[in-house]
Amino acid sequence: MIETPLTSHFGCRIPVIAAPMFIVSTTQLVIEASKAGGIGSIPSLNYKTHSAFCEALEEISHTLTEPYSINLIAHRTNPRFEKDLQACLDFKVPLLITSLGSPKMAVEKAHKKNMRVYSDVINDKYAFKSIEAGVDGLIAVTAGAGGHAGTHSPYSFIPELVRKYKTSVVSAGALSTGSSLLSALALGASGASMGTRFIASQEANAEEKYKKAVVDSDVDDLFLTPRISGIPANVIRTKETAHLETPMGLKEKLYFWLKFNKNAGLMKKFQKALRPDQGWKNTWSAGESVSGIKSILPAAEIMTQIYEEYKVALEKLPKA
Ligand SMILES: Cc1cc2nc3c(=O)[nH]c(=O)nc-3n(C[C@H](O)[C@H](O)[C@H](O)COP(=O)(O)O)c2cc1C
Prior knowledge:
This protein is α/β, with parallel strands linked by helices. Helix content is 39%, strand content 15%. The protein has 13 helices and eleven strands. It has helices spanning 5-10, 27-35, 50-63, 81-90, 104-112, 124-133, 154-165, 178-186, 196-199, 208-216, 250-260, 271-274, 299-316, and strands at residues 16-18, 39-43, 68-73, 95-99, 116-121, 137-141, 147-148, 168-172, 191-194, 222-225, 233-236. It has an eight-stranded parallel beta barrel, surrounded by six helices. Helix 2 (27-35) packs across helix 13 and helix 8 (178-186) crosses helix 13 (299-316). The chain is globular, with a radius of gyration of 19 Å. It binds flavin mononucleotide (FMN). Flavin mononucleotide is lined by residues 19-22, 24, 43, 71, 99, 120, 141, 145-147, 172-175, 193-196, 285-287, 289. Flavin mononucleotide (FMN) binds at residues 19-22, 24, 43, 71, 99, 120, 141, 145-147, 172-175, 193-196, 285-287, 289.
């Protein structure tokens, strides 16, 4: 048991969230990560329909006595947000992780049911807004993260958030080992949210070539590109990704401007026609934590390994 605000909020043993990953997280991954002492999580949108999501919630909540988490995309472009939130309330999901939008509605409703909400933040502006909305904790997504990465270093961002908001702050980005968990706790974090580490798990919904690429890659094999979604994301360099390392053309820039601009007015109708060909297809996202990933293992073994590595790293620290 590693005692931190995260483990005491949820009554788990290991302060590690198997981070929510679009497409990659699975029901089984959530169950195994939570059973092993961490907190498994999954985006509600990994289920194609709201009713498929409800069925999964039924399975997870009936299988687990341990805590688990659902990730809700709180952005106005997610038409399922309110319905999926209601299902989470009905099943009393222990932890809601909101991303890409305001956590306000989730917080107001979840607190009435004694449920907790943490929100993903990449800078102090969003952290402040989340704290104002009443979240129970922050997930600080930093530079080097898989998926949409932040830009701040954890060395500065984590202590700053802890000092300013005196809340539970989970570090996300570039963490995949017990020693990196230890370093996050040393900065004042209450835990680590690890995504890339769990891509290389047996339960992940990723093709074997993708899992193997995570194991075989080093930090230099990754690059940051805004060309997939308009928001900079870390991906593994492959034969198919060369074009993503070149600057955006005018058409693409206009597409993303229309995508993110609420006030685009009539121009909005051109958005679809401008849509670039590249999407996530044939593109493997991963974070700089690939450097610490050497094997594809069952999720439960990964959790246990992180815990064991943590104890060794703690023992090895130079004494003052
Ligand atoms: C393939 C992939 C998909 C992701 N999808 C989501 C998502 O749907 N929602 C979300 O909040 N974060 C998503 N993330 C970000 C993770 O939840 C987490 O913040 C990140 O993986 C942490 O960095 P790490 O990969 O270096 O551990 C994704 C990350 C990856 C690698």
